[in-house]
Amino acid sequence: MLMPDTLGQLLWRLVCIYTPFLLVGWFFNHIFLALFLASVSHISWFYYQQRKLLNWLYVDKRLTPPQGSGSWQPVFYGIYQLVKRRLNRERELAHLMKSFRLGAESLPDAIVVFSAHDEIVWCNRLASEFLGFKWPIDSGQHVSNLIRHPVFVHYIQQRQFDNGIEIVSPNRTDLTLECRVMPYGTQFLMIVRDVTQQRKLEKMRKHFISNVSHELRTPLTVLRGYLEMLDDELPDPAIWIRAHQMMSEQAIRMDNLVNQLLVLARIEAAPVISAQEEIDVPKLMDILEHEVRQLASNKELTFCFKVDECLWMRGSIEQMRSAFTNLVHNAVKYCNQPGHIEVSWQCDSQCGRFAVTDSGPGILPKHLLRLTERFYRVDKDRSRDTGGAGLGLSIVKHALQHHRSELSIDSEFGKGSCFSFIIPDDLMLHKDHE
């Protein structure tokens, strides 16, 4: 490491430079002229070294310094060390900024940094998706100019950031966003989170509780009314027979509702199905045909079961039994009389296709997309008469999702409906019929 010259070294360097000129001047009796020439030479040398320094700093711009002479060599080396340390610090800072930005980009939330004057300093990629920001085009833009929701503008202007706010995304109206702002130093950090799914789940939970309460209130009111009637004295036998029948029907209705809720909860909470469990679907169809014929014994309905006896599948027996049963029972409940119901389990391009077709009243197109929602019913009065709670198709939907399938509904109002689904080929089994 080079060190700058000490005072003694500088004096010795001056002596070495000026002594030869003084000796020559003394010899020719022109001492002052010799000193003048020595000074001019010394100044020219300094100017030459200075030019080399300026050329290195502003023209050449190489990291390696030029070769200096005398006392200028430590100067060049010292500047070189300063530049090198500065470049190292800049590299460290650039690496730190890169790591920070990569970390911010990997967050599941949008991040926006804005100044005390509400001007955008930086934002990550999700800010573009959630808020419509364009980086770096929007750098320096006022954040309220890009998010013009009145609640947000008031929130920014009031500077009361103890709690967050919820707004609709200015970029996508289907997103609900939660915004929280935290001051740090002279700037502000805004975190924007997508809470759309959370709000949907909360709404579903409220509707679920409301619907369950409503479904249980009616049978409980009937039971309570008849029980209060029994507090005074036993009613007339004719009235008691009717009361007993009504209480039995309402008790069965509540029992069916609770059982369906338990089945739905069990299916929703079930892990991914095991593809090793073999399901004898033809046998299930035989049992189901016997059940529905008994169920419809007092109805003017005809049935046709078309079952491929060699077509089995892998999956959850309990879930698929629920799916098959709910679809066929729904057809029996809602089919017009006289009517016809056809149940099919056939091979379709190496896949398994199950379909239930009825000659019922059909369904209007406006209802089709909502049929698999919990407690949704096309005709509430008719569903109440048939004992339906609006959970059957929701059970079918979740059971099929576990088997990578989806319920398809084709219906023409006034002519009938077809409910079907296709089981993927990797879940299918073909066995010889004995």
Furnish the topology, listing elements before pairings.
Layout (H helix, E strand, L loop, with lengths): L6 H22 L2 H30 L11 H35 L3 E6 L4 E4 L1 H7 L11 H4 L3 H9 L6 E4 L7 E9 L2 E8 L1 H37 L4 H33 L8 E2 L1 H15 L5 E7 L3 E4 L2 H18 L4 E10 L2 E8 L6 H4 L11 H7 L5 H10 L6 E5 L3 E8 L4 E3 L4
Parallel strand pairs: 7-9
Antiparallel strand pairs: 1-2, 1-5, 3-4, 4-5, 6-8, 8-13, 9-10, 10-12, 11-12
Helix pairs in contact: 1-2, 7-8, 8-13, 9-10, 10-13
Describe this structure in a few short sentences.
The chain has 434 residues and is α+β, with helices and mostly antiparallel strands. The chain has helices at 7-28, 31-60, 72-106, 125-131, 143-146, 150-158, 196-232, 237-269, 281-295, 317-334, 365-368, 380-386, 392-401, and strands at residues 110-115, 120-123, 165-168, 176-184, 187-194, 278-279, 301-307, 311-314, 339-348, 351-358, 408-412, 416-423, 428-430.
